[in-house]
Design brief:
Elements: H1 7-25, H2 29-36, H3 40-47, H4 55-64, H5 70-83, H6 98-106, E1 109-114, H7 125-135, H8 141-154, H9 156-159, E2 166-172, H10 173-177, H11 183-197, E3 202-207, E4 221-225, E5 234-237, E6 244-246, H12 249-265, H13 269-284
Parallel strand pairs: 1-2, 2-3
Antiparallel strand pairs: 1-4, 4-5, 5-6
């Protein structure tokens, strides 16, 4: 297995396989927990990929599920070993949304709706620094810089010469008119947004104020899709103290349908660019 394997995605795949083995055995997570003298929540966290899994955990679970094929056991053990490697983001220390970064790093496409701010992948360094400073007033200068560096590193997926991330962003007009930092900073940010929107794999649409009520009023969310069909899509909803990851097919479908309505109701790409350019000019006055 390659040393640069994404540990977050590897944990998800391993968890999905362990869930499949449990279901084939006809056991509930509670029954497995009782057999192994652990909590049911541990089994659930192992299966949803939110918890690091050891080779011992895999061995014990395979024993409960009576997996007799040593090749399967060895493969799962290797996956557990790979899943404990560290991704590039770990070098920056404790990042609250590290699970999301791991998913984003391996995603093939990302659909984002943001009603308040320009999405992180399309932010300038100055905008990111001003935004983080304002949103997290008790954060130290060192931690702010760390978060900015992580955000800039994430943007390498957009600029990648091979297999760049396919990004579709729907913004509310308020994200363009909210002055983060200064008017000059906002001018530069919107000019950058226009430049990025010209990339063939980046689409930016804006929902204008005069549209009124629309399906995005419930708040920001992102939908991640992966190149491997074995990896289910994920809906990511950012929280203040914890984040929400939805992977059930019905949940993903509902958010996907809502996103299609957002794209249909937003200004088209050219109209969106015209609106962004007009607001950028207003900031330059």
């Amino acid at each position: 297995m390659a040393s640069n394997v994404n540990p977050t995605v590897r944990r998800r795949r391993l968890g999905q396989e362990l869930r499949r083995l449990r279901e084939l055995k006809g056991m509930t997570a509670e029954e497995v927990a009782e057999r192994l003298l652990v909590s049911q929540s541990k089994i659930s966290r192992l299966e949803n990929g939110r918890r690091s899994i050891s080779q011992r955990d895999v061995r014990d679970l395979c024993g409960v599920y009576e997996v007799e094929d040593h090749r399967i056991v060895d493969s799962l053990m290797q996956m557990a070993k790979d899943s404990r490697q560290q991704g590039w983001w770990h070098s920056f220390g404790d990042i609250p949304y590290s699970v999301y970064i791991g998913l984003e790093t391996d995603a093939a496409s990302l659909r984002v709706y943001d009603p308040q701010v320009v999405p992180g992948l399309l932010q300038t360094r100055a905008y990111a620094e001003a935004l983080i400073t304002g949103a997290l007033p008790e954060t130290t200068t060192t931690d702010i810089e760390k978060r900015v560096q992580v955000r800039m590193r994430r943007q390498e997926r957009i600029a990648a010469p091979e297999n760049p991330l396919r990004l579709w962003t729907v913004l509310d007009e308020s994200a363009l008119r909210r002055v983060v930092g200064s008017r000059q900073l906002m001018h530069d940010q919107l000019e950058h947004l226009l430049e990025q929107s010209q990339l063939p794999h980046v689409t930016v649409q804006v929902i204008p104020f005069d549209l009124g009520a629309h399906p995005g009023l419930n708040g920001q969310y992102a939908i991640l899709e992966f190149p491997d069909a074995a990896d289910s899509s994920v809906v990511y909803i950012e929280g203040v103290t914890s984040d929400l990851y939805l992977e059930k097919a019905n949940d993903v479908q509902q958010y996907s349908v809502m996103y299609e309505h957002l794209r249909a109701q937003a200004l088209n790409v050219e109209q969106s660019r015209q609106l962004i350019a007009g607001i950028a000019k207003d900031y330059a006055r």
